[in-house]
Amino acid sequence: MFLGHFAVGFVGKRVAPRVPFPALLFAPILLDGLWPIFLLLGLERVRIDPGNTAFTPLDFQRYPWSHSLLMTLIWAALVGLTYRTLTRDGRGAWWLAAAVTSHWVLDWVTHRPDLPLWPGGPLVGLGLWRSVAATIVIELAMFFASVWIFLRTTRPRGWMGRLSLASLVAVLFLLYLMNLKPLPAGATARGIAWTGLLGWLFIPWAWWVERTRRTVRR
Fold it and tell me: What is the pTM of this model?
């Protein structure tokens, strides 16, 4: 899942309005931010396997440190405790921990059984990716519903506030459409890892959104 994780970040502004938007967006995509780092370090492994599922050609052979349930809970606890220590915002800390955990839950729904419960443990997954149509409908519904909620929760500070959010939504949507296409010839697992690191750029982009929009108290 891609847009579904970002949807959790957008919804977070309604649930925990005191939390800065970069943190809200960072939490649900954290595991996918760690994954390419562990790939490049050789700690995890992916293989390009066209037909692995109907939706993606990637065979996630080993990713216990970024995507096992146990490690997800550990990463979630670290994020929540760090935020709580820095801000004393208990509600925000709980939401950020839940947002990190939501990544594993959404992946459990979409992936075939390749998600470990713990490093070396049983593999699970409900396999929504076996249906391209169902995956697209559910993920787009989540994403656009979350953007609508974000629009009702924040207001632009002039045209920059409209531009910052509109450009973020447009880029995420275009990247999703690009991911529906087959991988280009010559694609490698290492190249996928380097491309995955670009996801960290969404954090400063979220900072731009935060700076140019204000939260509406309801």
Answer: 0.95
